[in-house]
Amino acid sequence: MQTLESRQPAAFDTPAVREMTLLADAIQRTYQRMADHLHKVEAYQDMIWNMPLGVLRLDTEGRILSANAAAATIAGVSSAIALVGRSIHEFWRDDDAAEQWRTSIANATHPITLTPIAWRRADGTPRWARLDISPVFDAEGTLVELLCALTDITEPIEAREHLRIAEQRYRFLVESASEGICTIDQEGRIRYANAAFAALVGMPREQLEGLSWKQLCFEEDIPRAYQLWQHQSSTAEFRIRRADGTERWAYISVGELPAPQPHAERWIVLATDIQAQKEARDALAQSEAYFRALVQHSRDSILVLDEHLRVRFMSDAGLRFSGYAPDEVLGQPLEYLLVPEDRPYARERLQEALQNPDRAVSAIARYRRKNGTVRTLACIATNLLHNPIVRGIVINAHDIHDYVLLQQELERALQNASSDQWFESHLLAMASEFTKPLHRIANNLNHVLTDSELGTSHTQAIEDALETTRTLHTLVDEMVRSAIIVAQDTAFTEVDLNELVQAILKALAPLIQTYQTTVILDELPRVQGHPAQLSLLFQALLEYSIQHTNTSTPLLRLSAERDDEMWKIAIYSSGTSIAPENMARLFTSLLTQETDLTPGTRLRFVSCRHIVERHAGRIWAHTEPDRGTTFYFTLPTASPSNTNDA
Fold first, then answer.
1. Is residue 486 within 8 Å of 611, Cβ to Cβ?
2. DSSP H helical segments within 488-577, as ranges?
3. Cβ atoms 395, 302 nearer than 8 A
4. What distance in Å separates the CA atoms of residue 129 and residue 501, rounded to the nearest whole number?
5. Which of 231, 241, 248, 250 is nearest to 211 (CA)?
6. How far apart are CA 621 and CA 623, in angstroms?
């Protein structure tokens, strides 16, 4: 069965039908192009409204007609719909925003940009924004709306602000730094220098800019400067040539700046002025060398012990005099050098030094030289273990063996002298020989103190040494004076002790006033004796009693009582205290190891004993801790007819 088309094909195949068919195809293609274009427009619109850049359509008054999601996010609202109908001015923090808007829009004939805008989100959070505005005109050229791109530029602005503040801060730090700082370009010329660097080189900053770094170096130092340049970021002491031609020492450090540009800064140089430190270091080195020479060539020995009392250092004088080699002494206990009988006493004194840092502890001990001979030393130990430089116990040892022999000879002379004239001349000759080296030492020390530039501590050390020589000289004078008076064999006479003591107290009036001592003088008797020797006796005991009281209200009392054919004299001093273990040997030989008294005081006490014994009496002392000390001695009574029993 045939279809209609098959039965009547020719009926529709006419020019009119073909024309209509072609027209229908053209219309269909047009609609297809329109549909494709519409799809593209919708795609572009979706892309615009969904892009991260905020997009707004505004009327000429700034009311929002439409917006995309990104604009809603920037504005801080929940959705783009929430923006429609609101004025964009609501989100501006600047009160003049509306006026700025009207001025910009009224003259808008082409796209304009407003930036930065002080933006405020819906929750009040301050932000910064950029608004790119494209005006839209109708066919007659009338502005009908605005198409705007809204960008949040808060982070870049804040970053620039932080960078500006940081730059100001670091510029201030660089400008106010005490360390010299400069930058150098690739051609070796200074591009920037701070005030400290200008002061270091002695040149104004404006003259430094453009100056070659070589002009700040001495010619002979330029090769060393190149070496410093090759080891960048290293620090070395370097000599700078100042504008006036003088030198200035500094610590120099060179570092390379990142990403150098042509004709821009490439290196940074840090310079720290160390002129004062270098001068002090050089002076210290010279001073150390000077005093090391003094120590090594001194006749006195200097030892340093560690905390275990082992010898850590001995000066050349000690090694030379003892005859030992350094490896025979260093590391050995100090007792190794001492005679066995003196070791317990030396150990006791060193323990006292350990327990009393910075306190000078004196002692007299004997040591044995390598050749077997025994010598006597006067030592002063000072605990400086806490001192980070010394870290040891310092012992200054002076050989007093000749002095000991002299003292022994004096004592023998005092006991056995038969001729006053021979004794005095012999004693004076020995004293003269003993004082000659003291004069030489004092002259040498005075020469060093006058002609050398010394530090405070070194000057004090030399002055202490001078004071020691003066003390020794006074000691010799006192020894000779006392020995001559004691040795005199003049006939005894009757002596009124009241008159004698009052004369002594009058002479001691300045000393009594200085110590604010109250003196009580009981009635004293007449005795049989030698006036000069008795004056020496009373003066020695009274001076010691006045000077060694340790109470705020010192009291001195003299009294007497009859003891058979003798008078017992008592001199009491409040506060004066002498260790009980030292009482028994207070008036014995100077060779006894008494540490509480100076050699001069001990010499006087020995002289007192000889005076009392020459008067057929005896002398002793009694002390009570915190209460005082009383010196007792007995003297023969005067003739019966003149005896005062008061």
1. yes
2. 497-507, 509-515, 531-547
3. yes
4. 108
5. 241
6. 7
Q: Are 470 and 442 in contact (CB under 8 A)?
A: yes
Residue range 61-102, pLDDT digits in tens: 889 888 888 888 888 898 888 889 998 888 888 766 667 777
- Model confidence over 558-577: pLDDT tens digits? 999 998 889 999 999 987 66
| Integer Cα distance of 541 and 333 in angstroms | 41
- What's the rounded Cα separation, in Å, for the pair 268 and 256? 6
Backbone angles phi, psi at 216, to 5 degrees: -100, 10
Interval 511-525: pLDDT, tens: 888 888 899 999 999
User: Residue 191 has what pLDDT?
Assistant: 86
Give the whole-number percent of the chain exceeding pLDDT 70.
Answer: 70
What residues contact residue 456 under an 8 Å CB cut-off, 6+ apart? none
What does the alpha-carbon distance between residue 574 and residue 625 come to, in Å, rounded to a whole number? 10
Examine residue 116 and say whether the peptide bond preceding it is cis (omega within 30 degrees of 0).
yes
DSSP 8-class letter at 636 = E
CA gap 311, 323 in Å, rounded: 16
360's tokens: 């000078």
- Identify any residues that bridge with 383 across adjacent strands, giving them in sequence order: 393
Among candidates 333, 452, 475, which has minimal Cα distance to 393? 333
484/602 Cα distance (integer angstroms): 17
State how far the Cα of 576 lies from the Cα of 605, in Å rounded to an integer: 16
pLDDT score for 131 = 87
331: left (phi over 0), alpha (psi -120 to 50) or beta: left
DSSP string, 239-289: EEE-TTS-EEEEEEEEEEPSSPPTTSEEEEEEEEE-HHHHHHHHHHHHHHH
3-state secondary structure of 370: coil
Distance CA 72, CA 539 (A): 110
Closest CA to 345 of 360, 324, 370, 367: 367
Give bridge partners of residue 117 from the DSSP assignment: 129
| Residue entry with tokens 């608004």 | 131
Listed in sequence order, the residues at least 6 apart from 644 whose beta carbon sits closer than 8 Å to its beta carbon are 523, 525, 526, 638
Give the Cα separation of 433 and 440 in Å (integer): 12
Cβ neighbours of residue 48 closer than 8 Å, sequence gap 6 or more:
55, 68
- Which residue, 500, 590, 597, is CA-closest to 547? 597
- pLDDT score of 409: 66
- DSSP bridge pairs for 118: 128
CB 48 within 8 A of CB 55: yes
Residue 580 class from Cβ within 10 Å (0-12 exposed, 13-18 middle, 19+ buried)? exposed
Assign 549 to helix, strand or coil. coil
Closest by CA position to 545, among listed 506, 508, 583, 493: 508
pLDDT in tens, 19-55: 777 776 776 666 666 665 555 545 455 555 556 788 8
Question: Do the beta carbons of residue 393 and residue 384 sit within 8 Å?
Answer: yes
47, 68 Cβ separation under 8 angstroms = no
Give the best-scoring range by mean pLDDT among 28-42, 164-178, 368-382. Answer: 368-382
Between 6 and 492, name the one with better pLDDT.
Answer: 492
Mean pLDDT of the chain: 77
Q: Report whether pLDDT(432) > 60.
A: no
Residue 2 has pLDDT above 80, yes or no: no
How does pLDDT run across 109-137, given as a tens digit for each residue? Answer: 788 888 888 888 988 889 888 888 888 88
Q: Which of 117, 138, 8, 135 is nearest to 59 (CA)?
A: 135
Edge-to-edge, what's the strand order for the sheet holding 126-137? 64-67, 54-58, 143-152, 126-137, 112-120
pLDDT at 498: 93
